[in-house]
């Protein structure tokens, strides 16, 4: 995104709409401009339709910068998944997809949200740390598709400085590995300059209890039980094996 200075009247109406605070009032030059390095190409400023002169302009993007839009703009489908934005069809569809079997845990580490953003070099640091526990990265995921080695979590060097509104590292593990993986995650926290949310998904036990709840607490994480589950209306539920 850039601001066409021939159209811009420096009204500053767009500044509050940037989640990355990348739109800046340059008092020395007397103009409003976009910090190109901080912009994640989410399109929020343009879609807000607050510019009275239509000065906000979406430029043509090439690789690797176009990754910013693919991870940050919910209207842009990722070419590797066909799903708009940074995710997959998501863990919460398990009632329909049956991706996670009994005894397994689905894990998502959502980096950069809310309103902080993340550089992909921080995403790589986390991915490489947890890869030491031999996790299985979800192949149908934009972050996994940037890896050159899914055994180590190493990502392509040319993408590392790109910034995204958020990015999700997604993988599944046997429940016996939940504690080691979460403890490994804690070791890398001081090395990253962003925030993350940790999501855990699993099938409930026959008695309705959650088998990973105790494991997360054992690893030192405060657990918030959220009922964000797609009920699969209109679709057949996955058959339990």
Structural description of this entry:
It is a single chain. This protein has a domain at 85-218: Aldehyde Oxidoreductase, domain 3 (Alpha-Beta Complex), CATH 3.90.1170. It has helices at 44-47, 66-72, 94-97, 120-131, 178-188, 213-218, and strands spanning 2-3, 23-26, 31-34, 56-57, 104-111, 118-119, 136-137, 147-149, 154-155, 163-164, 167-174, 196-201. The longest helix has 12 residues, at 120-131. It is built from six helices and twelve strands. The protein is α+β, with helices and mostly antiparallel strands and 241 residues long. It starts with a strand and ends in a 23-residue tail after the last helix.
Q: Tell me, what is the CATH class of the domain at 85-218?
A: Alpha Beta
Distance between the termini: 49 Å
Low-confidence stretches: none
The total strand number stands at 12
The coarse silhouette is elongated
């Amino acid at each position: 995104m850039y601001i066409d200075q021939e159209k811009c009247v420096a009204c500053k109406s767009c500044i509050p709409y940037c989640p990355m605070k990348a739109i800046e009032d340059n008092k020395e030059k007397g103009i409003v401009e976009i910090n190109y390095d901080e912009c994640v190409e989410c399109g929020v400023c343009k879609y807000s339709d607050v510019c009275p002169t239509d000065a906000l302009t979406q430029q043509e993007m090439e690789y690797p910068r176009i990754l910013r839009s693919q991870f940050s703009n919910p209207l842009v489908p990722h070419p590797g998944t066909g799903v708009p934005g940074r995710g997959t069809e998501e863990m919460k569809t398990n009632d329909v997809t049956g991706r996670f079997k009994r005894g397994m845990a689905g894990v998502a580490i959502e980096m950069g949200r809310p309103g902080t953003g993340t550089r992909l070099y921080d995403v790589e640091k986390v991915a490489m740390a947890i890869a030491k526990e031999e996790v299985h990265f979800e192949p149908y995921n934009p972050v996994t598709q940037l890896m050159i080695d899914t055994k180590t979590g190493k990502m392509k060097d040319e993408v590392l400085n790109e910034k995204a509104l958020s990015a999700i590292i997604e993988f599944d593990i046997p429940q016996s590995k939940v504690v080691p993986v979460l403890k490994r995650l804690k070791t890398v926290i001081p090395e990253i300059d962003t925030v993350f949310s940790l999501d855990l998904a699993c099938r409930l036990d026959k008695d309705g209890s959650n088998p990973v709840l105790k494991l997360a607490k054992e690893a030192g994480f405060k657990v918030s039980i959220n009922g964000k589950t797609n009920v699969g209306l209109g679709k057949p539920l996955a058959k339990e094996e």
